[in-house]
Design a protein that fits this description.
Mean pLDDT: 92
Structural class: mainly beta
CATH class: Alpha Beta
Number of strands: 9
CATH architecture: 3-Layer(bba) Sandwich
Radius of gyration: 16 Å
CATH topology: D-tyrosyl-trna(Tyr) Deacylase, Chain: A
Helix content: 10-25%
CATH superfamily: D-tyrosyl-tRNA(Tyr) deacylase
Largest sheet: 3 strands, mixed
Number of domains: 1
Strand content: 35-45%
């Protein structure tokens, strides 16, 4: 499992011109899942992501997690995180 996580003030997913999901303050997670990943892998990664202390506290230090700021998490499937570009055109690893 691979995740790219970004702190956002807003994020949304649009499909065929229609907004299918959106959040305000929180985390945008682009998530790639492999065939070998298991539910415990997902639980572990989810715990790590929601525990990231990347939001500023009252002193301006990055010391708060998404739950501490009442933020949201938007997870977007992104199979290309497993792309392999070592030879020729990119292909998904199997």
């Amino acid at each position: 499992m691979r995740a790219v996580t970004q702190r956002v003030t807003r994020a949304q997913v649009t499909v065929d011109g229609e907004v299918t999901a959106k959040i305000a303050n929180g985390l945008l997670v682009l998530l790639g899942v492999a065939k070998t990943d298991t539910p415990p892998d997902a639980d572990y990664l989810a715990g790590k992501i929601v525990g990231l202390r990347i939001f500023e506290d009252e002193n301006g230090k990055m010391n708060l997690a998404v739950g501490d700021v009442n933020g949201s998490v938007l997870v977007v499937s992104q199979f290309t995180l497993y792309g392999d570009i070592r030879q020729g055109q990119a292909s998904v690893l199997r």
